[in-house]
From TrEMBL:
Coiled coil: none annotated. This is Pullulanase/glycogen debranching enzyme. GO terms for molecular function: hydrolase activity, hydrolyzing O-glycosyl compounds. Residues 349-707 form the Glycosyl hydrolase family 13 catalytic domain. It comes from Chiayiivirga flava.
Length: 862
């Protein structure tokens, strides 16, 4: 592989920080309040600035700056300072100055430097090159006999396109491109044909504290790639050669009538089939496994679709930085249930194995190559991804996709940094001291900047239009502006010709928390947008503790499901069952009737949504321990395996009976365990396995990897070694079938999927509330009168987390002839204990068996 970068001229002297910030194309803020002396902007085209003891030499041009009289609003994240203007006579020179080295000094009257820094230039570039946001398509696009090439690189000194005939051979051409001064976009055309199938860009650009550099970089809009992302594959996604047979007219599941009809199943591509012996060996762990319709895994997915799952949500399938696409390893692992051996083997091979969750984006708009049959064939991953989508659609399942636009896997001059090596300092979000923010885990992107927003939107449009992705889950969506997400929603809907559902993690933390830089796409800021966020309120109440708890905390912090069924947690679960609506009111444990927005959750309002389609309900997903593993920590050790299965199913019932979008983790329905691993993102196939034969749930695979779990090993050892905890095949099969019954109950009535806050306020009422409640039993009543899709005049549901049967008297329901829901009453029903539930119409007495979720219905009046 040719070198990814070559320094043409290195900077001299110590590094400069970047504390000064351009506020627009003319104005900047100096980080300090001292207005004395003078402020000057120094430019060196060839990176020749050198700081001496009290002076700066090597400048080609020096601009005196004027102190502004007013202040610009709206930048609370930037420290108070002096605002400075470039003089009118110097404005025309600014675009060229941004293409070299720029340093700002504060000097005393005699010219001695008091302070010095470089500048954060993103806002200036957005102002100077605003037309780029609406310019024609960027990237590499075949067009008849030519390929149109376009790269936004406004600060580059020169740009050229290097082409190749294949994934590994020598270059076949070096093609000049021309810079458009209005947009900062470099454009050119290249002859199409076999000599020019792959490409890289050569970008000469000034890199702060490095110098003038020639970067060889792939295209940030790449639609395809060679193995390990070394070259961009030039692709026309509309070409017949990149469309599988039948693609044009392939059937597609209908659009759900409302977001609340969505029932999502989160699945990792490799997990799905790598251990499935019924899949041809060449397809295991690949896109093509979904095309093997007779496999155990596809039989499982079809059964879920028939029961009520609407969408398969795939963990990241864009180009991933940390999975080797050639020569990755699958280590042999084995050992006793409480051994350190397994995790040691996994850790030793983690950098070269074939597994990673994939939350480390390399190229946002190209399919991941390790899931393709041939990663070096740029066409293979495109064709096979589309075949996967076709297969899932044919099974009656829409396809969702986990996207990670909030960070990159690398920044700066790292070989895996794409964006920052094209426009240094623009695409990443910088802190006040000029360093890259990493609150997401990795170098954060700045989607508040126009061209990072455009890249995100253009990428999502491609997935929705050209791959028929039906819904998106946005990783750490709260790190993005609400306005950008709303523009993305409009764009993907227009491109797809139908509504594309958006949901994401609306967590509020980091350098953008509480609206520090913009109105976020976060839980408390998205009301009215129709974009959904995951709710941690009911999740934490059900599971106990919080997502970040270690083993000791997990043991201490029981949840409603596993021994901590107190009234406070019960109230949070009622908030979740009511769609986390801020306006929904009920009698709380204190005896007061309060809206959910007035109920506290860790200092935030428990109810925060304006409509039920804006919440995603879940008790388990890929992050943190599985529900089975948490319950292994929390339930009494002597809890029988069959009872553990009931607790697991009760957790699924909380989601199935909740208003809003239902979300389930793959394997939650078959007691999935990751051997108590709290963060299995790089734990290999061994700790992430799925068994579609329903024989083994993965518990007791050994002590999980030390990186995130070693502090809890001594707590885990006796639990993992306890053979009484591990479920039998019968326990797994029972959970599978009981889960599907819950899906059928949810699907049987629109009352579980109400579409508006008004409907929920008018139709849902909680019983057994207030200070005298039995907090281990939650009872809800849904009024179906006048509702076209209710199916029943009313539904009465109850969830009992206690270890014994409970009896409640519901005076308001006396005289109502409730009967067991038809799914419970069917001969094939999995949960026989639910049949022991009783409702006495004469007395209004409800009896709910231990650890049981049950629904009664009031049939339609004739």
């Amino acid at each position: 592989m040719p070198e990814h970068a070559r320094t043409l001229r290195a900077v001299s002297g110590p590094a400069f920080d970047a504390r000064a910030v351009w506020l627009d194309g003319r104005t900047l803020r100096w980080p300090g309040r001292d207005r004395s002396g003078r402020f000057r902007l120094h430019h060196a085209r060839d990176a020749t600035l050198v700081r001496g003891n009290d002076a700066l030499t090597g400048a080609d041009r020096v601009l005196d700056l004027d102190i502004a009289q007013g202040t610009m609003p709206g930048l609370p994240w930037i420290a108070d300072g002096v605002e400075l203007h470039v003089r009118e006579s110097d404005l025309a020179a600014l675009p060229d100055l941004h293409r070299g080295q720029l340093v700002i000094t504060h000097e005393d009257a005699g010219g001695t430097i008091l302070d010095i820094t470089t500048l954060q230039h993103a806002r200036a570039l957005d102002d100077l090159y605003a037309a780029a946001a609406d310019a024609p398509a960027l990237g590499l696009h075949p067009d008849g006999a030519h390929t149109r090439a376009a790269l936004w690189a406004p600060t580059a000194r020169s740009v050229a396109l290097c082409t190749y005939a294949d994934a590994s051979g020598a270059a076949t051409g070096l093609h000049p491109v021309q810079r458009d001064a209005a947009t900062g976009i470099w454009r050119g055309t290249v002859d199409a044909g076999p000599a020019h199938r792959y490409a890289t860009w050569l970008v000469d650009v000034f890199v702060p504290n490095v110098g003038l550099v020639r970067n060889r970089v792939t295209d940030p809009y790449s639609l395809g790639l060679s193995a390990d992302s070394r070259r961009s594959y030039i692709a026309d996604l509309g070409a017949p050669s990149l469309q599988p047979a039948g693609w044009t007219d392939a059937p597609r599941p209908p659009l759900p009538a409302a977001a609340t009809d969505l029932v999502l199943y989160e699945l990792h591509v490799r997990d799905f089939s790598i251990g499935d012996a019924s899949v041809p060996s060449a397809h295991r762990g690949k896109y093509l496994a979904f095309t093997d319709t007779a496999s155990d895994g596809m039989r499982h997915l079809r059964a879920l679709a028939q029961a009520g799952i609407t969408d398969i949500h795939l963990l990241p399938v864009f180009d991933i930085a940390t999975i080797p696409e050639r020569g990755c390893l699958t280590p042999d692992v084995g050992g006793t249930p409480d051994s350190e051996r397994q995790q040691a083997i996994v850790a030793a091979h983690a950098a070269r194995d074939c597994f990673n969750w994939g939350y480390d984006p390399f190229h946002y708009t190209a399919p991941e190559g390790s899931y393709a049959s041939d990663a070096d064939d740029g066409a293979a991953r495109i064709l096979e991804f589309r075949r996967m989508v076709m297969a899932l659609h044919a099974a009656g399942l829409r396809v969702g996709m986990d996207v990670v636009y909030n960070h990159t896997s690398a920044a700066g001059q790292d070989a895996r940094s794409v964006l920052d090596r094209i426009v240094p300092g623009y695409y990443q979000r910088l802190l006040p001291d000029g360093t890259v923010a990493t609150s997401t885990c990795c170098p954060n992107t700045a989607t508040e900047h126009a061209m990072m927003e455009r890249l995100m939107i253009d990428s999502a449009v491609t997935w929705a239009r050209d791959y028929r992705i039906d819904s998106f889950r946005f990783d750490l969506m709260g790190h993005q502006p609400r306005a950008a997400m709303e523009r993305l929603q409009r764009a993907v809907d227009a491109a797809a010709g139908r509504h594309v559902h958006l949901l994401g993690e609306g967590w509020n933390f980091g350098e953008i928390a509480d609206g520090a830089r913009f109105v976020q796409a976060s839980q408390l800021s998205l009301g009215g947008s129709g974009i959904a966020t995951f709710s941690d309120r009911a999740r934490d109440a059900a599971r106990g503790g919080s997502a970040g708890d270690n083993g000791i905390d997990q043991v201490r912090n029981t949840g409603w499901l596993n021994g901590g069924a107190d009234a406070r947690r019960a109230d949070l679960l009622r908030v979740g069952l009511a769609g986390s609506l801020r306006s929904y009111a009920f009698e709380t444990a204190s005896g007061s009737t309060l809206p959910a927005s007035a109920i506290d959750y860790a200092g935030q309002p428990a109810g925060y949504t304006s409509q039920p389609g804006e919440v995603v309900n879940y008790v388990e997903n890929h992050d943190n321990q599985t529900l089975f593993d948490l319950n292994a920590f929390k339930l009494p050790r002597d809890t029988p395996a069959a009872e553990r299965a009931r607790v697991q199913t009760l957790g699924a019932a909380l989601v199935a009976f909740s208003q809003g979008i239902a979300y389930f983790h793959a394997g939650q329905d078959i007691l999935r365990s990751k051997s108590m691993d709290r963060n299995s993102f790089d734990s290999g196939d061994w700790f992430n396995r799925l068994d579609w034969t329903y024989t083994d749930n993965g518990f007791g695979a050994g002590l999980p990897p030390a990186q995130d779990n070693a502090a809890s090993w001594e707590l885990m050892r006796p639990v993992l070694a306890d053979t009484g905890i591990k479920p039998s095949a019968d326990d797994i099969a029972w959970t599978r079938d009981a889960f599907r019954d819950l899906l059928r109950i949810r699907g049987s009535s629109g009352l579980f999927r109400l579409r508006s806050a008004d409907e929920i306020r008018n139709r849902l009422r909680f019983l057994n509330t207030g200070p005298a409640q039995q907090s281990g039993v939650i009872v809800g009543r849904l009024d179906g009168r006048g509702h076209a899709d209710a199916g029943f005049d009313a539904i009465l549901y109850a969830l009992n987390a206690e270890t014994d049967a409970r009896t409640l008297v519901l005076p308001t329901e006396r005289g109502r002839a409730y009967v067991l829901h038809p799914v419970h009453a069917a001969e094939a029903a999995a949960d026989r204990r639910a049949r022991e539930a009783r409702f006495d119409a004469d007395t209004g007495t409800l009896r709910v068996p231990a650890r049981t979720a049950v629904a009664f219905v009031l049939p339609r009046a004739p």
